[in-house]
Amino acid sequence: MSNTVLKELNDGVLLLTLNRPEKKNSFNVEQWTAFAAELDAARVNDDVNVVLITGAGSDFSAGQDLRDAGVPGALQAYRITERAVVDFDKPLVGAAKGVAVGGGATILFHTDVLYVGESLRMRLPFNSLGMAPEFASSYMLQALIGPQRAAELLLTTEWIDADKALDAGIASRKFKDDELLPNAMAKAAEIAQLPLASLLETKRCLKMAHKAGIETALKIEREAMDRLAGGPASIEAMMAFIEKRKPNFRNLKK
Asked: How many structural domains is the chain composed of?
């Protein structure tokens, strides 16, 4: 069992904690794989009515660990997790504070209830990395907050604090950091006391109207990623990250 994702089951609520706090819970192959496995196991476990996801330490997740991005199996592990999140059919509650960037943000768009801490700093950095959106975020964010607001956040890659996430409709409620997890746990426990069959059908009713849009977005995003990966902009972004400098995209060819 990987220690990169901790689990705790209590009275119908499965708490999954991303556990690489020294790396801001950024995803390596092991953590992508472990997180997907826990979601898949929770789907078929009748003792689980609700899953609550959070991050250890001060952050939710900094997304893909860029130093791990090119290792064998990284893309496959990410896509397995993407599928596990999209297909998860039980209520999914999120509790996020600190950094939530890239995949660490787009996972949260698939939560049914999202509570955030006052320290939240969310960002969708894909353009700044010479890449395209992921996790069907190009659809999910529009569904959450509308096309104009979604386009602004995706195109500019600007930081989103807790108040902006709340005002935009990304998050349901905001709490002080030390009150975040207890309040998210209380909401998850409230939901978990209801009949699992009803919860499953309600989530199906909520999500079915979005299924075609999500699947289309996944296909388009993957095609875009394949075109951009290893291109001049993504190479410049990676070199800038390694060299600890600001990338310069102005003179790059398409």
From this structure: 1
